[in-house]
Specification:
DNA primase DNAg catalytic core, N-terminal domain; DNA Primase, Chain A; about 270 residues; 10 helices; binds zinc ion; 4-stranded antiparallel sheet; single chain; 11 strands; alpha+beta
Length: about 270
């Protein structure tokens, strides 16, 4: 299990990195006296107010106030979470990220980053499968529902909305071919395992809305039941890649809002 990343490792990592080199690889920097400057990557501007100090190993934007060290920059620019940013930078330097042994299990479900990569990939494939469900014979009822809600085909496509037929084993038979993949499906909440160890699809007979993280990866789903089933809305549970506290909202709430606005805002 993962412990905390030791502070000493983070300090060491920062000491080995050069923030000028790191940022210059992403945003072309120009030497300005002691510091380096560029147009800020975090807000729109025509005259450069973004400054990087090699001496202090900090960046600062006089326009929008963005500032921080190399880790902050990678988090913001590459849209990574803290631990992901550390892992990314460490791997660039060929370092393994150590973990503290003590401190007990981390809060909530957890997976290693290589396991997470597999989970993201699996969720993306399931999202595609749901999307193809809209084009199936059984999916007509979902198309009717979406039309009734005033959603254009373009919106449906843009948000990757799909449909899953009212059956117990659509996802299990397609994505859970062996025990390991079934366990991965259970860990992402796509399958439910009952007391007898029987595994079955969580989402059945629903219009499916993928929930994405900031990087656009599918991390969970919201499902709106068609017909009289309950609950009306069902979300993925807390999983190693879906942390409800950190995610903004389920997509169908965006869509609800979309109905009452004149512009969708992209
Ligand atoms: Zn700025």
């Amino acid at each position: 299990m993962a412990g905390k990343i030791p502070r000493s490792f983070i300090d060491d990592l920062l000491a080995r990195l050069d923030i000028v080199e790191l940022i210059d690889a992403r945003v072309k920097l120009k030497k300005q006296g002691k510091n380096y400057g560029a147009c800020c990557p975090f807000h729109n501007e025509k005259t450069p107010s973004f400054s990087v100090s090699q001496e202090k190993q900090f960046y600062h934007c006089f326009g929008c106030g963005a500032h921080g060290n190399a880790i902050d920059f990678v988090m913001e620019f590459d849209r990574l979470e803290f631990v992901e940013a550390i892992e990314e930078l460490a791997s660039q330097l060929g370092l393994d990220v150590p973990r503290e042994q003590s401190g007990g299990a981390p809060k909530g479900p957890y997976a290693r980053s290589d396991q997470k990569r597999d989970l993201y990939q699996m969720m993306g494939q399931i999202a595609q499968f749901y999307q193809s469900g809209l084009r199936s014979e059984a999916g007509k009822v979902a198309i009717d529902y979406l039309k009734g809600r005033g959603l254009s085909g373009e919106i449906v496509q843009k948000f990757g909305i799909g449909y899953v037929a009212d059956e117990w084993d659509q996802v299990r038979t397609r994505f859970g071919r062996d025990n390991a993949s079934q366990q991965a499906l259970v860990s992402t909440g796509m399958l439910i395992e009952n007391d007898n160890g029987r595994r079955y699809d969580r989402f059945r007979g629903r219009v499916m809305f993928p929930i994405r993280d900031r990087r656009g990866r599918v991390i969970g789903f919201g499902g709106r039941v068609l017909g009289d089933g309950t609950p009306k809305y069902l979300n993925s549970p807390e999983t190693p890649i879906f942390h409800k506290g950190r995610e903004l909202y389920a997509l169908y709430e965006v869509l609800q809002a979309h109905r009452t606005q004149t512009t969708s805002g992209g």
